[in-house]
Design a protein that fits this description.
alpha/beta; Rossmann fold; six-stranded parallel beta sheet; 6 strands; about 15% strand; globular
Length: about 180
């Protein structure tokens, strides 16, 4: 049986996303396809108790896991040796800032499976930025503009319960005249 480890996101600022929800973990465990261990985190969008309730083991030690799932790049200092990582490494387009991560993966004899390059038989990406990622990106652009100019204030999208909450914030915010270019 496959033993999956779910990494705590260590990149600063911390990402609250996680590779598998408690419900997805429960389904995998109950199907007999996997055992799952997750590192504890107070930053994650689901609580440690949510995972315990789904039958997931909470542990700092993921050394017994066959593969490790994360979301964002892993700080080089956190990499183990001889391990399979599933993450968005942000290295496939030769991003210079993550070259040390790719080099360390090779030096530590790791296998990197980057979500960005997983494709189906039609060569279509399996995991891509969808509609909500676009909405978060647009929100972050407005958030940053507001912070930079001081003309309005928005909360971080991660601090809102859902998109409906964001829409309510937009209705209550007086935005200055501005031009937005979408490419």
């Amino acid at each position: 049986m496959l033993h999956i480890g779910i990494l705590r996101e260590e990149k600063i600022p911390h990402d609250t996303r996680v590779a598998l929800s408690p419900d997805q973990c429960k389904e995998l465990i109950q199907s007999g396809r996997a055992n799952i261990t997750i590192q504890p985190s107070d930053e994650r969008c689901f609580s440690n108790a949510d995972y315990i309730g789904a039958g997931v083991i909470i542990s700092e030690d993921l050394s017994a896991c066959d593969l490790l799932l994360g979301v964002k790049e892993i700080p080089v200092s956190f990499l183990k040796e001889n391990t399979t990582y599933f993450i968005f490494s942000h290295t496939i387009k030769q991003q210079a800032h993550n070259r040390p991560l790719l080099q360390a993966m090779l030096q530590k004899n790791n296998r990197l499976v980057d979500y960005e390059v997983l494709v189906n038989e039609k060569n279509q990406r399996l995991i891509a930025f969808g509609r909500f990622a676009g909405k978060v990106g647009a929100h972050n652009a407005l958030y940053t503009y507001g912070k930079r100019t001081g003309k309005f204030t928005l909360p971080r999208m991660k601090d809102l319960a859902d998109y409906a909450a964001a829409l309510e914030i937009y209705k209550q915010t007086t935005f200055p005249k501005m031009k937005i270019v979408l490419t």
